[in-house]
């Protein structure tokens, strides 16, 4: 159980490091997606600790996993898609406006215009 | 300068890990009350065998309405940003792969192989998406999952050229999306007139199929999610496709 948790923590931290450290805004958006994926995996892992059967009520089901984290993560996945679509559209717009995807070059060029 | 930045990034990530890693690694036991309640009551309360569907369309249908609203806002924002860019002028050029010299848009992502395979895969994936959508109450799946598969089928149809379909035009897709959102709101308030409250089931006693309201909501949400995500993808592929 501990090895999955360490891997999820590493996934979360790599997503965070991509948001903080990368200069390319497309890579920052990928970092956001990694954060989203790690949170989804953490919830599914927590829900699966009290059972080992899929949450579909057949006749012989006794020990199913908790379905509530799965239902919550359904929402989180859709919201994650919305966030990445909107941020990618903004990235396209920034590229069209300034001609670069590098966040520092974008800031310099926008400051020069004003 | 470069080294200083690297040190700053490492310190930030370490601080973040101080906050987050204890939460991820905590071994606190997970409560079982909710699972036991759902195991005993979910089928008689909502009629759905799939408890995940029973939660997001039965117990917490209000959340699903909010979620579709977020999706609607996101699609509106994306379309507003992308449409303002205007249509890009694509140059036509003859490709060296074709047998007869033909003019094609200069887009290196679109090849003959992709167009042929995608247009043949499209209808099959569309059928699978509707299967996942319609059987969401008794098997893994549901409106959101089926809707995303439908969206990928529409993207396949838009990439391909052999099957011509009205489904790939953003005009038709956005009309379907608006209509299904209207239907969702109508379905959500219909319970009020039959004394079962907001998002209550108005046809509980009318049919022998116990999960009827969940099937209806699954279909509406599947259409909504599928067309919204397809509209966003087609807008990102460069507006309405050009055959």
What report would you give on this structure?
The complex is a heterodimer of chains A (114) and B (243). Helices cover 75% and strands 0% of the residues of chain A. Chain A has helices at residues 2-21, 25-47, 67-98, 103-113. In chain A, α1 runs antiparallel to α2 (25-47) and α2 (25-47) packs antiparallel against α3. In chain A, 24% of the residues are buried. Chain B has 243 residues and is an all-alpha fold. Chain B has one domain. A two-stranded antiparallel sheet of chain B has the order 1-2. Chain B is globular, with a radius of gyration of 24 Å.
Low-confidence stretches of chain A: none
CATH architecture of chain A: Orthogonal Bundle
Helical stretch tally of chain B: 8
Question: How many DSSP-defined strands of chain A?
Answer: 0
Oligomer: heterodimer
Q: Terminal Cα separation of chain A, in Å?
A: 54 Å
**What letter string, H or E per element, gives the SSE order of chain B?**
HHHHEEHHHH
Short structural summary:
By secondary structure, chain A is mostly helical.
Strand-helix topology:
The complex is a heterodimer of chains A (114) and B (243).
Chain A: H1 2-21, H2 25-47, H3 67-98, H4 103-113
Chain B: H1 2-25, H2 33-46, H3 51-59, H4 61-85, E1 92-94, E2 103-105, H5 112-134, H6 143-159, H7 170-190, H8 212-236
Antiparallel strand pairs in B: 1-2
Helix pairs in contact in B: 2-3, 3-4, 4-8, 5-6, 6-8, 7-8
Keywords:
heterodimer; A: 4 helices; 0% strand; B: 243 residues; 8 helices
């Amino acid at each position: 159980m501990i090895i999955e948790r360490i891997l999820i923590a590493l996934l979360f931290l790599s997503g965070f490091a991509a948001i903080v450290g990368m200069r390319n805004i497309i890579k920052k958006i990928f970092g956001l997606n990694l954060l989203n994926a790690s949170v989804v995996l953490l919830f599914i892992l927590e829900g699966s600790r009290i059972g080992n059967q899929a949450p579909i009520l057949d006749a012989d089901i006794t020990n199913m996993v908790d379905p509530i984290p799965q239902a919550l993560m359904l929402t989180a996945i859709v919201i994650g898609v919305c966030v990445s679509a909107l941020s990618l559209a903004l990235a396209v717009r920034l590229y069209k406006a300034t001609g670069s995807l590098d966040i520092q070059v974008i800031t310099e060029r926008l400051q020069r215009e004003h | 300068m470069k080294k200083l930045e690297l040190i700053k990034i490492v310190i930030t990530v370490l601080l973040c890990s101080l906050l987050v890693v204890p939460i991820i690694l905590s071994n606190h036991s997970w409560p079982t009350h909710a699972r036991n309640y759902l195991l005993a009551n979910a089928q008689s309360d909502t009629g759905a065998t799939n408890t995940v569907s029973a939660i997001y369309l039965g117990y917490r249908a209000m959340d699903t309405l909010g979620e579709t609203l977020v999706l609607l806002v996101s699609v509106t924002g994306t379309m507003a940003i992308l449409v303002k860019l205007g249509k890009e002028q694509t140059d036509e050029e003859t490709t060296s792969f074709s047998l007869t010299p033909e003019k094609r848009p200069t887009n290196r992502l679109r090849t003959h192989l992709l167009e042929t395979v995608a247009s043949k895969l499209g209808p099959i994936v569309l059928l699978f998406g509707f299967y996942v959508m319609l059987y969401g109450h008794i098997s893994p799946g549901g409106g959101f999952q089926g809707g995303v598969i439908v969206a990928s089928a529409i993207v396949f149809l838009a990439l391909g050229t052999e099957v011509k379909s009205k489904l790939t035009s953003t005009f038709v897709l956005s009309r379907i999306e608006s209509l299904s959102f209207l239907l969702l709101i109508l379905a959500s308030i219909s319970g009020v007139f039959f004394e079962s409250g907001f998002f209550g089931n108005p046809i509980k006693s009318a049919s022998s199929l116990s999960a009827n309201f969940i099937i209806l909501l699954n279909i509406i949400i599947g259409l909504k999610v599928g067309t919204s995500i397809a509209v966003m993808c087609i807008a990102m592929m460069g507006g309405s496709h050009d055959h």
